[in-house]
Amino acid sequence: MKRTDYISWDEYFMGIALLSAKRSKDPNTQVGACIVNSDNKIVGIGYNGFPIGCSDDNLPWNRDGKDINSTKYPYVVHAEANAILNSTENLKGARIYVGLFPCNECAKLIIQSGIKEILYLSDKYKNEDFIKASKKMLKMSGVKLTQLKLSSKKINLYFDIVE
Fold first, then answer.
1. How far apart are CA 81 and CA 113, in angstroms?
2. Among 36, 4, 61, which residue's Cα sits nearest to residue 118?
3. Are 95 and 115 in contact (CB under 8 A)?
4. Which helix (H) or strand (E) is 80 found in, with range?
5. β 42-47/32-36 pair status
C-alpha cells in the first residue's frame, strides 16, 4: 500500500516558497515565492534581496532611517518580482505561492505576467493602503486570491543521506 502521510501540492509548493525565503539576507522579513504552471511544474522561484551585483554589505538593511535611501526599501527586489524575472516560460495562467500577501508593486507585475492565482499564508498588512491598492487591482484583473490554511504547520527536512 502507498503511504498516506505525503504532503499536498499546496503544501509542497508553499514549502518551496518558504525554503526559498531562507536565502534572503533581510534581518527582518524573509519572503519567498514559487510560480507553478497548470501542469504543476515549477517555472519560477525567488526571494527578497538586492539586485545582482549590488553588495549585501554595502546597502542598508534598515527599516527606518534619516531618509528613504538609508533604508532597504528603494533597493530590495521582492520575492514575487524575482520569481517572475527568474521564470523559465510564459506565465499565463500560472499560480504563485508566497508567504506574505503581495504589495501593490508586485501585484502589477503579477497581473502583467498573466499569473491567475495567488496562494499566500500571511495577510498581516491587510489594513495598509498599499495592500488595499494591491487587492483592488488584483480583483479588477480577475486574479484569484487564496489564503492557504494548511493541515500541518511543520514539514521536517533532513540533510542526512540514507544509504
1. 10
2. 36
3. yes
4. helix 79-85
5. antiparallel
DSSP-derived pairing of the beta strands 95-100 and 32-36: antiparallel
Q: Are 65 and 113 in contact (CB under 8 A)?
A: no
- Cα 71 from chain centre: 21
For position 163, what pLDDT does the model report? 66
Tens of pLDDT, residue by residue over 34-61, are 999 999 999 999 999 999 999 999 999 9
- Cβ neighbours of residue 110 closer than 8 Å, sequence gap 6 or more: 80, 84, 96, 102, 118, 138, 143
Residue with cell 527599516: 63
Q: Residue 156 corresponds to which cell in the numbers above?
A: 521536517
Q: Is 163 among the catalytic positions?
A: no
Cβ neighbours, 10 Å, residue 141? 14
Among 11, 80, 105, 117, which one carries the catalytic annotation? 80
